[in-house]
Amino acid sequence: MQIQPRTLALWTPPPAVDVEALPVGKWWDAVKAPSNIGERALKALGDETGAVIQDKHGPLYWLVKVGSATSWHLRQVRVLTELADERTYLGVPPVSWTDGLRTHWRVPLSADRYLTDAGELWEALAEADRAEYGRMPVGRQLCYRCQLPTDEPIPVDVEDGRSDVGKVTYACPPHAPLYTRRRPRPLTSATAAEHEGRRSR
């Protein structure tokens, strides 16, 4: 009988009174998702999620088996793993920090809540990405602000035109929250879905 990775209680944070920077790639890798994507993925995973850290600024971090997510490519999702020429660290809160505005365990670490299965996490994050931003466009797109091509284009505006497909304005992840020319915030999932519907006709 194969034990699911999330049930392998092989590690617990060292005793600490504050967030401690611990190296990724030693006990686990970490997958970081922005709050809008992370919340959707967390809901989709339900009881299948392992422990989750929520940063005080909003992003969520799942712990996964070392090396299990290194080839991923999803918009705004980052895989933290050990690199050949440098160490990468993750701020890990004490086990007792399970709520509040500070960095805490959104899903508390326990004997049966440790690592999340990387395949299930990818599916949940990919579904969340599509729901928030629509289908990934073919090819690289220019960011409206820095005018550089980005591999993670985020739609921030759709101009209604006379054709079935309106002109889409894209942004790279750092500049997407700054778009204010026509809307004070990036496309909502509903707007993205509406745009996706026009494209599929």
Protein architecture, described:
The chain starts with 19 loop residues before the first strand and ends with a helix. The protein has three helices and eleven strands. Strands 5-2-4-3-7 form a five-stranded antiparallel beta sheet. A two-stranded antiparallel sheet has the order 1-6. A two-stranded antiparallel sheet has the order 8-9. It has helices at 35-45, 118-133, 189-200, and strands at 20-23, 29-33, 52-54, 60-64, 78-80, 89-92, 104-107, 141-142, 149-150, 154-159, 167-171.
Percent range for β-strand residues: 15-25%
Largest sheet: 5 strands, antiparallel
The best one-word shape is elongated
Class derived from helix and strand content = alpha+beta
Poorly predicted tracts of residues: 1-7
Mean pLDDT: 84
Computed Rg: 19 Å
Question: How many H/I helical runs?
Answer: 3
Helix content: 10-25%
What's the arrangement of secondary structure elements?
Elements: E1 20-23, E2 29-33, H1 35-45, E3 52-54, E4 60-64, E5 78-80, E6 89-92, E7 104-107, H2 118-133, E8 141-142, E9 149-150, E10 154-159, E11 167-171, H3 189-200
Antiparallel strand pairs: 1-6, 2-4, 2-5, 3-4, 3-7, 8-9, 10-11
Helix pairs in contact: 1-2
Give a brief outline of the structure.
With 201 residues, the protein is an alpha+beta fold. The protein is 19% helix and 21% strand.
Quick tags:
single chain, 3 helices, 11 strands, 5-stranded antiparallel β-sheet, alpha+beta
